[in-house]
Amino acid sequence: MPNDSTFPPFYPHDSIEEIISDVFMVRGTIRMNALMRITRNMAIVRHESEVTLINPIRLDEAGLDQLTTLGDVTRIFRIGPMHGVDDRFYIDRYGCELWAQETSSTYPEPKPDRLIDASSVLPFPNAKLFTFEGMLRKESALLIEREGGLLLTTDSLQHYGDYRHNNFFSLTSMQSLRASNSEIVFFTVVTKSFKI
Q1: Which of 32, 48, 104, 123 has the most crowded Cβ, counting Cβ within 10 A?
Q2: How many CB atoms within 10 Å of residue 10?
Q3: Domains annotated on the chain, with CATH
Q4: How far is it, in rounded angstroms, from Cα 190 to Cα 172?
């Protein structure tokens, strides 16, 4: 594995928590620039001994120790093209594959090992991939169909119920985006069960 300094640093994050059986999440942060720190989340799906990281965020050593207790990290599943800053860290550390819709212009390396679309066979059961069509950058959502349903999204559809990792500047910016005619649209997900 290359020297740790060859990768972007980890940023403050919470511990891994199970949100439904064999699906976990980590609430974390990323520093966008000198003034803006925003929340970002990673989902983790365990199926048998395999662990899939969905839009991974780099964890500190305590978080990585907790992650290894879940099983073997076998793949990264990128559902948003602007997420990928930490993919290389996990690929180099665990030798896992990258599954994505296409090569990202934001993070062109590493290239996907497997291209995915709505017809792809997923690496875990009771799940469907939905792809947003007609967008400049391909994006998707992942529906986990158990325990009432869990919809995992990226940038096109967001629900911010926990703002504690966002700093004042990012909170103010998000409010102005919501009020403007920006291309970024924020939706609040209020339903617990979804059908695609």
Answers
A1: 104
A2: 19
A3: 4-155 (3.60.15.10)
A4: 23
Residue 41 CB partners (closer than 8 Å, separation 6+): 25, 26, 27, 28, 55, 57
pTM of the model: 0.77
DSSP 157: S
Pairing of strands 50-54, 72-78: parallel
User: Is the distance from CB of 86 to CB of 8 less than 8 angstroms?
Assistant: yes
Instruction: Round to the nearest angstrom and report the end-to-end CA distance of the chain.
Output: 40
- Partners of residue 75 on adjacent β-strands: 52, 97
Task: Give the H or E element holding residue 32.
Answer: none
Each residue of 17-49: b (16+ CB within 10 Å) or e? eeeeebbbbbbbbbeeeeebbbbbbbbbbbbee
Pairing of strands 97-100, 37-47: unpaired
Report the pLDDT averaged over residues 63-90: 91
| Summary mean pLDDT of the chain | 78
* Helix residue ranges per DSSP H, 18-167: 61-68, 87-94
pLDDT band at residue 64, thresholds of 50, 70 and 90? very high
